[in-house]
TrEMBL record, chain A:
Residues 86-245 form the 6-phosphogluconate dehydrogenase NADP-binding domain. Signal peptide: none annotated. Residues 248-367 form the 3-hydroxyisobutyrate dehydrogenase-like NAD-binding domain. SUPFAM superfamilies: 6-phosphogluconate dehydrogenase C-terminal domain-like, NAD(P)-binding Rossmann-fold domains. Belongs to the HIBADH-related family. NP60 subfamily. Pfam families: NAD_binding_11, NAD_binding_2. Coiled coil: none annotated. Gene3D superfamilies: N-(1-d-carboxylethyl)-l-norvaline Dehydrogenase, domain 2 (1.10.1040.10), NAD(P)-binding Rossmann-like Domain (3.40.50.720). Transmembrane segments: none annotated. This is Glyoxylate/succinic semialdehyde reductase 2, chloroplastic.
TrEMBL record, chain B:
Signal peptide: none annotated. Keywords: NAD, Oxidoreductase. Pfam families: NAD_binding_11, NAD_binding_2. This is Glyoxylate/succinic semialdehyde reductase. InterPro entries: 3-OH-isobutyrate_DH-rel_CS, 6-PGluconate_DH-like_C_sf, 6PGD_dom2, 6PGDH_NADP-bd, HIBADH-like_NADP-bd, HIBADH-related, HIBADH-related_NP60_sf, NAD(P)-bd_dom_sf. PROSITE patterns: 3_HYDROXYISOBUT_DH (PS00895). Residues 176-293 form the 3-hydroxyisobutyrate dehydrogenase-like NAD-binding domain. Residues 25-148 form the 6-phosphogluconate dehydrogenase NADP-binding domain. Belongs to the HIBADH-related family. NP60 subfamily. It comes from the Eukaryota.
Length: 376, 303
């Protein structure tokens, strides 16, 4: 029975391709041979794929082989470290759970922790190990990921009592994929690195579905060698990754992107409501927009449900508002006026006060509607 | 009451095609950025055009490509069965119709007037009433990028021309709806351009490479043609006008007026309008609307 070796190669930080290589059983394929086989079969061009197909071979993988040695094409010199054998995952919410699941399905050895233990069950049934604190997870793993909801939780999990930092040491790495402000990221980085371990901030662009489909975009900064080591893992969970330099740069990029997104959603909401009030069909507005220069996937995806006043949660409104608040903080640090983002932020605050924190951020449209019932 | 109607099959632009032959001489009033490009397009597809522009010299290039000049709007209407108008704002649209030697002097039964200017619903209704009371047919058809939003009986007859000019048409019902739809779309576009500008500048001021921001945006849920097209030139502070800022601000103002009439809160659009106003005050009105970027980036310490 032949084993199939799955190798994901990245020719640059942005472009990915995947190859399946048939190997006779019990043969260790050298990484460089695997890479050269990739080069000869896979074109050097950006490929964006919806699911996780094998782009170069028609054969479906039946088995995964653990790759011991791996060289990444995009570094200046191939790193001597092996691909991390034991992966930790802290935080199994809307994003963390599918991300961890993708790692397990790709054949990784994953250990998990979550504040609410029951959220770990689906992962455990897929083969993950459970530990009862971030400290124990970090201690038993080579690379530990953290996906928490906000700066407070991120700091607590990393630096708190029984936090990950207590279990870190030289030779280990901590990759924080939470979205936080630069100061928080630097604080966590300092704590982690003081143990001798490496740190990488790596917030993602993309919500629930891209997380499930392994189509996230990683905006990383920090220790380059950890970026190189973790690369194959990021490639399992995502479709592209950027290395942006010093800690703080990844956080800033993420906040800028989400600031634009939050403003766009607020403006789109104004347009939908206005069109309805002046006697147009908002569904037609969605169609018209999809034909022109401002057509964005977000509008086509969310527009139809917004017209129905439905807001199934892919990205909780409270997190969008948190991101806007942090982005405004970043703008204040560099003394930049951001009137549009500020106006949009107010709408999200109104929506939160209406109890829509856990709805999808598209529920911000409700903030524009007149609230008729009075709560006593 | 409305109904939407997606564009029918593409009509072959063979001048031997009877419906195209019927449109023998088309009139075109207004040869600005849009009008000139649209007229050239029609000429290239074999239509015969009679053109008029307030500044007659702008007709020259079109004459070289086979168009005839009409001395006044009335002269154009007299000669042509169908006339398209592409004026810059409500005042110009009204003056061409109601002014001396204007459209009304020659419009009548058997003639059609298709107004593609972006105006408010009231202006459109005024023009419509005046035209139809003289026996003419009226079609309001403001364009959105490469799209036409239109209505009425002229729709069928005008389809060959619309098909040349645009890629998809929507039939929206009563007069005023096309104008409104256009304003709503442009309102969102104006707010988006402001949000984009804020993001580009914040990225730059935070020590990030703005081009990298463009790359990231292009991969995700908020990727759109406008960011892709305008982003690179904005980073270079280059704003060659495709859509003049003063017209974008006009549209935001009209959209806010619509919101005002209907008591719709629009805080983001209001903030965006202020930014465009500021840009006009800085003398950027004739540049592309992406020049609103300068209102965000022109602060102390910006690169």
């Amino acid at each position: 029975m032949a084993k199939i070796l799955m190798v994901k190669a990245s020719y640059s930080n942005h472009y990915l391709t995947t190859a399946a290589i048939l190997s006779p059983p019990n043969t260790a394929i050298s990484a460089s041979k695997a890479m050269s086989m990739c080069s000869s079969f896979c074109p050097r061009r950006p490929i964006s794929f919806r699911a996780k197909p094998i782009s170069c071979f028609p054969i479906k993988p039946k088995f995964w082989v653990h790759v011991k040695a791996f060289s990444s094409q995009d570094s200046t010199s191939p790193p001597k470290d092996e691909i991390p054998a034991r992966i930790g995952f802290l935080g199994l919410g809307i994003m963390g759970s599918p991300m961890a699941q993708n790692l397990i399905k790709a054949g990784c050895d994953v250990t998990v922790w979550n504040r609410t233990k029951s959220k770990c069950d689906p992962l455990i049934s897929l083969g993950a190990t459970y530990k009862s604190s971030p400290e124990e997870v970090a201690a038993s793993c080579d690379v530990t990921f953290a996906m928490l909801a906000d700066p407070e939780s991120a700091v607590d999990v990393a630096c708190g009592k029984h936090g990950a930092a207590n279990g870190m040491s030289s030779g280990k790495g901590y990759v924080d994929v939470s979205t936080v402000d630069g100061a928080t990221s630097k604080l966590i980085s300092t704590h982690i690195k003081s143990t001798g371990a490496l740190f990488l901030e790596a917030p993602v662009s993309g919500s629930k579905k891209p997380a499930e489909d392994g189509q996230l975009i990683f905006l990383t900064a920090g220790d380059k060698s950890l970026y190189d080591t973790a690369g194959p893992l990021l490639d399992i969970m995502g479709k592209s990754r950027f290395y942006l330099g010093d800690v703080g740069n990844g956080a800033a990029m993420k906040l800028v992107v989400n600031m634009i997104m939050g403003s766009m959603m607020a403006s789109f909401s104004e347009g939908l409501l206005l069109s309805e009030k002046v006697g147009l069909d908002p569904s037609v507005l969605v169609q018209v927009i999809s034909q022109g220069a401002i057509s964005a996937p977000m509008y086509s995806m969310k527009g139809p449900s917004m017209v129905q006043s439905l807001y199934p949660t892919a990205f909780p409104l409270k997190h969008q508002q948190k991101d806007l608040r942090l982005a405004l903080g970043l703008a204040e640090l560099v003394s930049q006026p951001t009137p549009i983002a500020a106006a949009a932020n107010e709408l999200y605050k109104v929506a939160k006060s209406r109890g829509l924190s856990d709805d999808d951020f598209s529920a911000v449209i409700e903030a524009l509607k007149v609230k008729m019932e009075q709560r006593s | 009451m409305w109904h939407s109607h997606c564009l029918v099959e593409r009509i072959c632009f063979d001048p031997r095609n009877p419906s195209v032959r019927e449109m023998e001489e088309i009139g075109f009033l207004g040869l600005g950025i849009m009008g000139k490009a649209m007229s050239m397009n029609l000429l290239r597809h074999g239509f015969k055009l009679t053109v008029w522009n307030r500044t007659l010299s702008r007709c020259d290039e079109l004459v070289e490509h086979g168009a005839t000049i009409g001395e006044t709007p009335a002269a154009v209407i007299k000669k042509c069965k169908y006339t398209i108008a592409m004026l810059s704002d409500p005042a110009a649209a009204l003056s061409v119709v109601f002014g001396e030697d204007g459209v009304l002097e020659q419009i009548g039964s058997g003639k059609g007037y298709i107004d593609m200017s972006t105006v408010d619903a009231e202006t459109s209704s005024k023009i419509s009433e005046a035209i139809t009371s003289k026996g003419g047919s009226f079609l309001e058809a403001p364009v959105s990028g490469s799209k036409n939003l239109l209505r009425m009986a002229l729709y069928e007859a005008a389809l060959p021309a619309f098909d040349v000019l645009g890629k998809k048409s929507f039939f929206l019902g009563q007069v005023g709806n096309g104008a409104k739809m256009k304003l709503v779309v442009n309102m969102i576009m104006g707010s988006m351009m402001n949000a984009f500008s804020e993001g580009l500048v914040l990225a730059d001021k935070s020590g990030l490479n703005p081009q990298t921001l463009l790359d990231v945006l292009d991969l995700g849920a908020i990727a759109n043609p406008m960011f892709k097209m305008k982003g690179p030139s904005m980073i270079q502070s280059s704003y060659s006008p495709a859509f003049p800022l003063k017209h974008q601000q006009k549209d935001m103002r009209l959209a806010l007026a619509l919101g005002d009439e209907n008591e719709v809160p629009m805080p983001v659009a209001a903030a965006a309008n202020e930014a465009f106003k500021k840009a006009r005050g800085m003398g950027l009105g004739d540049l592309d609307f992406s020049a609103v970027h300068e209102t965000v980036s022109s602060g102390k310490g910006s690169s």
